[in-house]
Amino acid sequence: MDTRVEEASVTPKTAPGPIVLGAAATAKIAELLEREGNPDYFLRVAVQPGGCSGLRYQLFFDDQPLEGDNVMAEGSVTVRVDRMSVPYLKGATVDWLEGLEQSGFTINNPNAAGSCACGDSFH
Known about the structure:
There is one protein chain. This protein has helices spanning 23-36, 86-89; strands spanning 19-21, 42-49, 55-62, 70-74, 77-81, 92-98, 103-108, 121-122. The strands form 2 sheets. The chain has a 5-stranded mixed β-sheet. The longest helix has 14 residues, at 23-36. The protein contains 2 helices and 8 strands; from the N terminus they run βαββββαβββ. Mean pLDDT is 81; it is low at 1-15. The protein is of the alpha/beta class. The protein has one domain (19-112): HesB-like domain (Hypothetical Protein Aq_1857, Chain: A, Sandwich). It starts with 18 loop residues before the first strand and ends with a strand.
């Protein structure tokens, strides 16, 4: 009787990131990254003090990983969230809105108790 056990190839599970990227946001970020032409760039999403409601979202291209970053990938797009911002962004959805009156990234954050009229800051 053969008692050998074949090793199964196991793909490590990736924990879900603190944010969800909508399809339109993923496509727009990929387009903007391609225009930048720097393969080291990734999207950084952060929360920083400021704005009229106390906290402000920051979305920008970065090439400097930080210790403790939460990293997620969506297609060709890599997103990093610093460890201090993760609790503020957990469950938030980032998407791209394209319309006649307004175009830009939107953040739907279930952790925000309220926001200001400009939509850039929250508490």
